[in-house]
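Whiteboard transcription, Tuesday session. T.W. wrote the structure tokens on the left side:
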């Protein structure tokens, strides 16, 4: 899970790079200039939206002069010793849990050379232990409950700087130790996209760790900390705040419960680990996915019962589509004889030997799992009502991400499966929303 990609692929040309040929998406992000723009621009977007929420009640700011712009830039806080200490302890704690906690070892998908990497699945136990430790720190006064809200700015600068440093290390590590990943020979572009698919130090997998731990858990803990701020300021935690906190908590708890599913995701299978994913995992997720809670702190409105019921129903419906479709594909891949919706599975056998499920959810749309995720995304934004567009940033960005990701996946599958993929698209013509898109 992460920022993922932000643009569709260009022509499906191929490029030979360090021993492996893969679709050349050198220009998927506007080439080196696009990569440079995103590397500088994305952190600024997070700072900008944060300032809009905390200083201007969610209103978008339009700087009219150089002085306005300078004023906005001056608002970017520097890291404080406290923020550095909090994040240092946090990152070290998550790394220690990843290394030390018990959990079964699972094999990832086959790599280009046919081998498989092993991953320790200890997210479920690490997730609950983190809550216990943070709870202990708050109860004993080591950590103020409102730390995430209070330190948001300095924490954000700290993690942005850290993600640049970490990506620099990954860049060097990939060039030094990577073996078969596509690199393009342009330093800016390679820094952004990454120089290795699975950079590891010993058995410590940097990509899986960053994808699954420090950012994801900080996001949910950040929400609860922001809710504590609302309580401190207004003496109450509003229904919308409770909905947002519970929805996000559920999403991530469910993620760890089905942790193994991460091994078949696009990011793990296809994406090199560079600044794009590193920044996405460490900064984008915890600091922008908390915008709804951040907005609600000073908008402690209630909701009519039917509004609450409708939003809960939307989230539950989205969850059912999301989880059921993903698990259906997972089960089908593990055992194609397993019935789908009570009937034998219908599928296409590709010439590569892979099977493409064409019934159940996967007969409704080719990425119906994205629809479920988008329904939940809407349910997370609606509690903020309609006073500002900033809390809707998540669904806007996420829609763009998933639409473009579907197109990129489609291009890759068309290349991989050829006529078999065409047959699948003939049988299942809808991309994400059955009968609509
Ligand atoms: P998918 O899980 O949809 O995987 C796509 C791959 O599945 C294809 O490349 C192909 O790979 C295989 N596949 C496609 N069609 C079929 C079929 N009919 N039968 C069998 N296999 C098929 O992609 P993602 O990794 O993008 O998404 C996983 C989940 O994560 C989604 O629910 C998504 O919404 C969610 N997500 C959440 C994010 C967040 O920030 N909240 C960010 C990104 C994703 P192959 O044939 O090579 O196995």
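and on the right, the sequence the group agreed on:
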């Amino acid at each position: 899970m992460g920022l993922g990609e932000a643009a569709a692929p260009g022509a499906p040309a191929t490029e030979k790079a360090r021993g492996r040929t893969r679709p050349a998406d050198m220009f998927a992000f506007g080439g080196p200039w696009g990569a440079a723009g995103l590397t500088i621009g994305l952190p600024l977007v997070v700072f900008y939206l944060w300032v809009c929420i905390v200083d201007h009640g969610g209103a978008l700011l339009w700087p009219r002069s150089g002085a306005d712009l300078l004023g906005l830039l001056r608002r970017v806080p520097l890291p404080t010793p406290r923020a550095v200490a909090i994040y240092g302890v946090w990152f070290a704690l998550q790394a220690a849990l990843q290394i030390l906690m018990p959990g079964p070892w699972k094999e990832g998908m086959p790599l280009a050379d046919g081998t498989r990497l092993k991953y320790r699945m200890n997210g479920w136990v690490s997730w609950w232990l983190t809550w216990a430790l943070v709870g202990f720190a708050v109860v004993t006064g080591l950590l103020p409950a409102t730390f995430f809200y209070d330190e948001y700015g300095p924490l954000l600068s700290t993690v942005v700087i850290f993600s640049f440093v970490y990506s620099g290390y990954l860049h060097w590590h990939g060039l030094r130790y990577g073996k078969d990943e596509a690199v393009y020979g342009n330093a800016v572009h390679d820094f952004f996209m990454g120089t290795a698919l699975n950079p590891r130090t010993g058995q410590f997998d940097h990509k899986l760790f960053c994808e699954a731990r420090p950012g994801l858990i900080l996001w949910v803990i950040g929400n609860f900390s922001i809710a504590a701020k609302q309580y401190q300021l207004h003496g109450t935690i509003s229904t919308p705040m409770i909905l947002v906190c519970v929805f996000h908590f559920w999403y991530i708890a469910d993620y760890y419960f089905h942790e193994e599913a991460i091994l078949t995701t696009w990011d793990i299978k296809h994406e090199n680990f560079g600044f794009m994913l590193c920044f996405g995992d460490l900064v984008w997720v915890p600091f922008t996915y908390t915008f709804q809670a951040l907005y609600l702190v000073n908008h402690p409105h209630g909701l009519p019962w039917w509004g609450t019921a409708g939003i809960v129903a939307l989230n539950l419906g989205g969850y059912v589509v999301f989880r059921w479709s993903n698990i259906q594909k997972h089960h089908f891949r593990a055992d194609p004889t397993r019935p789908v919706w009570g009937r034998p599975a219908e599928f296409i056998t590709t010439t590569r030997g892979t099977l493409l499920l064409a019934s159940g959810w996967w007969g409704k749309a080719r990425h119906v799992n994205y629809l479920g995720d988008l329904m939940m995304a809407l349910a997370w934004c609606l509690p903020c009502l309609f006073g500002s567009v900033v809390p809707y940033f998540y669904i806007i960005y996420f829609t763009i991400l998933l639409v473009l990701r579907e197109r990129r996946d489609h291009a890759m599958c068309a290349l991989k499966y050829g006529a078999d993929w065409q047959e699948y698209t003939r049988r299942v013509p809808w991309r994400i929303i059955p009968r609509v898109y």
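Someone added at the bottom: Residues 1, 4, 265-266, 322, 326, 329, 354, 356-357, 362, 367, 369-370, 373, 405, 409, 413 surround NDP (CB under 6 Å).
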